[in-house]
Amino acid sequence: MFKLNDRVFYPFYGVGFFINVEEHDIQRELQTYYKIYIPDKQLDIFVPIDNAQRLGLRRIEKIENLDSISNIEYNYKDHFEVLGDNKKQIFLKKLRLGTLENHLQLTRDLQYTIWAKINLHYEEKNLLKIAHNMFVQEIRDAVNLSEKEAIEFIEKDFKEILKNYI
Questions:
Q1: What's the start-to-end Cα distance of the chain, in Å?
Q2: CA-CA distance, 123 to 74, in Å (whole number)?
Q3: In a 3-state reduction of DSSP, which class is residue 6?
Q4: Dihedral of the alpha carbons of 59, 65, 66, 72, in degrees to the nearest 10
Q5: 10-residue averages of pLDDT along the chain (166 residues)
Q6: Which residue among 4, 24, 69, 156 is least crowded, i.e. fewest CB within 10 A of its CB?
Q7: Of 43, 68, 79, residue with least CA distance to 162
Q8: How far apart are CA 48 and CA 51, in angstroms?
């Protein structure tokens, strides 16, 4: 259970704040929802309590320091061993799971593809944009950085890691 103003993360929406628990009558059945406010989208969303975990609603991850993110190892060669629709399904699963590590992996995968001078499909470009935004939001709020500082950290981190692969 969340407390008032707990920072939470909801896949595809980003970082928000827990507001309260509300009951709504849906087809003559009373259902209980978490009310979450997503400030970046200026949006209130209602997540069914019974499905919240399955839908990926969670507290934002605690980050001791930014180095702990940089130290998450990842093998870029794995990215190229998967082809076509399988790759798309893996990308979507990482985005749906909504963990910080999944967003990091997805963003690194797609960014590496760009730096390796391989064209991204339209869907992959959209996934990169969504994953990057989710990653920036969570780092920004977990470490209490400005959005600009979070973006600068990510770009520096990726360049450091990718120099070993390109």
A1: 45
A2: 23
A3: coil
A4: -80
A5: 91 93 92 96 96 91 66 62 71 81 79 73 83 86 87 78 58
A6: 4
A7: 79
A8: 5
- The residue type at 155: E
Give the DSSP letter string of 48-79.
EGGGTTTTT-EEPPP-S-HHHHHT----HHHH
Instruction: Give the largest Cα separation in the chain, rounded.
Output: 59
Q: Considering only CA atoms, which of 153, 161, 67 is closest in space to residue 112?
A: 161
Distances (CA, A) of 63 to 39, 49, 101, 141, 154: 21, 26, 11, 10, 14
Position of tokens 């709504």? 24
Burial 43-52 (b: 16+ CB within 10 A, else e): eebebebeeb
21: its two tokens: 């628990």
Its pTM surpasses 0.70 = yes
